[in-house]
Write a structure and sequence with these properties.
Blueprint lengths: L31 H16 L1 H4 L1 H12 L3 H29 L1 H18 L6 H18 L2 H11 L4 H30 L1 H22 L26 H13 L2 H16 L1 H14 L4 H26 L4 H18 L10 H13 L4 H12 L3 H30 L3 H20 L7 H6 L1
Helix pairs in contact: 1-7, 1-8, 1-9, 3-4, 3-12, 4-5, 4-6, 4-7, 4-10, 4-17, 5-6, 5-9, 7-8, 7-17, 8-9, 8-13, 8-16, 11-12, 11-16, 11-17, 11-18, 12-13, 12-17, 13-15, 13-16, 14-15, 14-16, 14-18, 16-17
């Protein structure tokens, strides 16, 4: 049990080393923060099932209910928009009520929304269940959750931990996407929706029993830092989230980070995660094969995101962002020429290349928020993440409309590539924070 783990001293200085008895080796002490990070990783993996399903729903729902792809894309866009808009308020709620309570409730809401879709018959019910309920629940499980855990439990290795926790979403996609694709193809979309609900509920006990809100709860210092008392609960969570937004909105870096992250969402969740499977199916590729390619993207996303966290600890974050967006844009411009009925080597090269870049942008973006906005960085990142999801929502809807109007996704792939080029230029414009600016931002 976690409570059996030898805890470090409350002081930042290491305790004196004792001479082992009878020549035995001294016990290796693992800081509690790594166990909290592990529980967070498992939680995000379990909650990632809901993120794997939207792209698999478009064709089955279109075939059963004869809803247009634009209508289905609208429900997905509501989900993505609320996912982002909820994030900054969720970060503030975690300061008020604690991480465990917020995340446990969020997982329960996700399960409820996914389960209710089994009985839907009208488009508005899809919007309500999958768009609103799952969107609100997933927003509270957004990357602001990972940012809050990292900020509280780690004073060192923050870039690496951010990369690992961000990669958890891709790992969940890897675990669930092939299974959900198989369920959709052989048993229909309803068993897949039930599987998502059960996966979300299964994680709730891990969160409630094993996660801790703050190092002071177990009388410890954060990893690599000095002991600090747990701050009192912050009242007025919604007011604080809005106040932080107004403060950040008066600074240039916020708009540049929000703009680049909006393009990030448009070129990942909004486009590839939502429309890659139906686009590949348009070219004759089986749904299971296309879903398998997305799962492979998840494999290399884990590698790329953890590596990005390692790079973020060592290199300038804004330059990393510029490189990531430029490479992503180039890969998307080539994608329309690679789609075919069968998987071939050039497509595999795209999958590997694009997968390494999928969410590699997250660690440097969080680092830049931390540099510029100090103690408010988790909430600021929540608002930046909101822009990510607004961009994703816009393209999820626009991609469906483009397919209905033009019979092809080609124009959307090319537009996304051009947007990524613009994001690379925007990242280079972000300036370093002035001396004392971080302290003022967190005050």
């Amino acid at each position: 049990m976690l409570s059996d783990v030898t805890q470090t001293s409350e002081r930042s200085a290491p305790a004196p080393t004792r001479k082992p008895r009878n020549g035995a080796r001294p016990r290796i002490r693992i800081h509690r923060a790594w166990f909290v990070a592990a529980v967070t990783f498992v939680t995000i993996i379990g909650a990632a099932a809901f993120a794997s399903l939207p792209g698999l729903l478009i064709e089955p729902l279109h075939g059963e209910f004869h809803w247009s792809r634009g209508t289905i894309g609208f429900a997905v866009s509501v989900n993505l928009a609320l996912y982002g808009l909820t994030a900054p308020f969720a970060a503030a709620l975690m300061d008020r009520f604690g991480i465990r309570r917020v995340v446990a409730v969020a997982l329960s809401v996700i399960a409820l929304g996914s389960l209710l879709t089994v009985w839907m018959t009208e488009p508005w019910q899809l919007v309500l269940c999958w768009g609103v309920l799952v969107g609100l629940g997933s927003g509270s499980m957004a990357l602001a959750f990972a940012a809050t855990v990292t900020n509280r439990w780690f004073a060192a290795r923050r870039g690496l931990v951010t990369g690992i926790l961000t990669a958890a979403g891709a790992s969940g996609q890897l675990v669930f996407l092939p299974l959900l694709a198989w369920l959709v193809e052989h048993h229909g979309w309803r068993p897949a929706a039930v599987t998502v609900a059960l996966a979300a509920l299964a994680v709730v006990p891990f969160v409630w029993l094993l996660l801790r809100d703050h190092p002071a709860d177990v009388r410890m210092a954060p990893y690599g830092g000095a002991y600090v008392e747990k701050p009192a609960p912050v009242t007025g969570a919604a007011r604080r989230a809005v106040t932080v937004l107004f403060k950040a909105a008066r600074t240039g870096p916020f708009w540049l980070l929000a703009g680049t992250f909006a393009i990030c969402g448009a070129s990942t969740n909004g486009l590839v995660k939502t429309h890659f499977v139906p686009a590949a199916h348009d070219h004759g590729m089986p749904v299971t094969a296309a879903a398998g390619l997305l799962a492979v993207i998840g494999v290399f996303d884990v590698v790329g995101t953890i590596a990005s966290g390692w790079f973020t600890d060592r290199f300038e974050a804004r330059r990393l962002l510029a490189v990531y967006y430029a490479l992503r844009g180039i890969s998307l411009l080539f994608l329309p020429m690679l789609l075919a009925p069968a998987v071939h080597p050039p497509m595999l090269f795209f999958i590997v290349f694009y997968g390494l870049d999928w969410v590699a942008t997250v660690p440097p973006t969080i680092a830049l928020c931390r540099e510029h906005y100090g103690e408010d960085s988790a909430i600021v990142f929540g608002w930046v993440l909101a822009s990510h999801q607004v961009g994703a929502a816009a393209v999820a809807f626009a991609g469906g409309l483009a397919r209905d109007l033009f019979g092809s996704y080609d124009v959307v792939w090319c537009a996304a590539g051009a947007l990524c080029a613009a994001a690379a230029l925007m990242a280079l414009v972000i300036r370093r924070p002035r001396v004392g600016a971080v302290a003022a931002a967190g005050a």
